[in-house]
Input
Amino acid sequence: MPGTLIVFSAASGAGKTTLMNRVMPSFPNVVYSVSATTRKPRSGEIDGTHYFFKTEEEFEKMIEKNELVEWNKVHSNYYGTPKSFVEQKLAEGKDVIFDLDVFGKINFDKVYPQAIGILILPPNLEELEKRLCLRKTETEETLRLRMENAKKEIDFALNKGKYQHVIYNEDLEAAVIELEGIMVKYSSLKSSIQSGS
Ligand code: 5GP
Output
């Protein structure tokens, strides 16, 4: 049976990365699709593990050569899903998880309409603003911009995104249980959690 494809999307500050990192170890058959990006590596990020870090020129070559399942410009950097990685993992019988922005997910669906979409949202916009402030990475201007973008993304995702599941991440432990519950619903993932760690 071909592997399951699961797409995660979230507004920034929704806690997607924390949630994925908590749940992934329970699903040994699931691999994370490593995207290509022109964003500079953050401290601790490893080329080939977190992203394939590319120059703009390299990335544009990948687009030209049709090497990406989908791509998008997010916060002025390119991000895209390399075809070869997905095809190789599916051929190995793996389930694959993707982290895509809400607009990239629409293009992804054109290639893999069978993919399961999971949208992670903060409980409300006030909470999102509070979390972004706590990170202390934003100026007043970038905070305003991020909040405006988040509103647009959430609106788009809820109305046009075709996500089968929406998780409102208010309490991390509750969200972890909810996400695990969703993932075991899909049969190949279920066998992986049962035989897993
Ligand atoms: P970050 O730079 O914080 O790792 O990611 C920024 C945004 O890019 C997030 O919304 C993430 O979901 C999105 N992203 C990461 N990889 C891809 C990809 O391959 N394609 C698309 N469309 N978005 C991606």
Residues 35, 39, 70, 72, 74, 79-81, 99-101, 104 surround guanosine-5'-monophosphate (CB under 6 Å). The CA atoms of residues 23 and 180 lie 7 Å apart. The first helix runs from residue 16 to 23. The chain has a mean pLDDT of 90.
